[in-house]
Amino acid sequence: MKTQTSATGNRGFTLVEIIVVVVIISVLATMIVPGMYAGRSSAQLRGSARQLLVAAQYARDFATTRRCKCRLMIDVDKQQYALAFQQDPQHNPSEFVRLNTGLGRAQGLAEGLRFGRVRIEPREGHDQPPQKIDYITFEPSGQADAAVLEISNGEQTYSVLIAPYTGYAKLIEGTTDDLPNDRLDLDI
């Protein structure tokens, strides 16, 4: 069968060929696009978890360098966190003022992310209020309340762990049932 060519000798595409190409592109798009969104969600989760880690590290550094208590406040209802510090420990030890610069500002979790389990255990002898504790206190000595802060996108979870005796924070992928304990037992 002969195909018709134009005056310049170029052959055109038939309607069937164009439809086949469009179907192939749409099938590939339905396979690739969901994977792209899943990767984006995972990257947002990892990024938000790292931001929370940096905020915890900043709170510890702020407390030790400024020689005042600093708190990482968690608001599970609003899905955000912020830093506050003890402005006048001599005259107003229970008053904490929010930091309004850089990492101290209130940070919300990215869309689609939520705080999972938030476990905070105040240090021994710590002045704890009777209601639920929604903050981690970092002391000028470097110590802090032991904590596990989980952030999840529904499929994947990252946890920020805060050690009580050193106040150091670290990020792990997944969940943990144990609060961090960096205390060394020298009687072993």
Q: In terms of topology, how is this protein built?
A:
Blueprint lengths: L14 H52 L3 E6 L4 E7 L9 E3 L8 E2 L5 E8 L13 E4 L7 E7 L4 E6 L6 E5 L15
Antiparallel strand pairs: 1-2, 1-6, 2-3, 2-4, 5-7, 7-8, 8-9
How would you describe the overall organization of this protein?
By secondary structure, the chain is an alpha+beta fold. It has one domain: 3-Layer(bab) Sandwich (minor pseudopilin epsh fold), CATH 3.55.40.10. Helices cover 28% and strands 26% of the residues. The protein has one helix spanning 15-66, and strands spanning 70-75, 80-86, 96-98, 107-108, 114-121, 135-138, 146-152, 157-162, 169-173. Strands 1, 2, 3, 4 and 6 form a five-stranded antiparallel β-sheet that branches. The termini are far apart. The model has no long low-confidence stretch (mean pLDDT 83).
Short overview:
The protein has 188 residues and is of the alpha+beta class. The chain has one domain (15-173): minor pseudopilin epsh fold (3-Layer(bab) Sandwich), CATH 3.55.40.10. It has one helix spanning 15-66, and strands spanning 70-75, 80-86, 96-98, 107-108, 114-121, 135-138, 146-152, 157-162, 169-173.
Helix run count: 1
Backbone shape = elongated
Q: Termini separation (Å)?
A: 91 Å
Query: Which CATH C-level class is it?
Result: Alpha Beta
CATH superfamily: minor pseudopilin epsh domain
CATH fold field value:
minor pseudopilin epsh fold
Radius of gyration: 27 Å
Instruction: Output the helix-strand order.
Output: HEEEEEEEEE
Major β-sheet annotation: 5 strands, antiparallel
Number of structurally distinct domains: 1
Q: Approximately how much helix is present in the residues?
A: 25-40%
* Number of DSSP-assigned strands: 9
Which percent band covers the strand fraction? 25-35%
Q: Give the class from helix and strand content and strand pairing.
A: alpha+beta
In the CATH hierarchy, what is the architecture at level 2? 3-Layer(bab) Sandwich
The residue-averaged pLDDT reads: 83
Poorly predicted spans: none
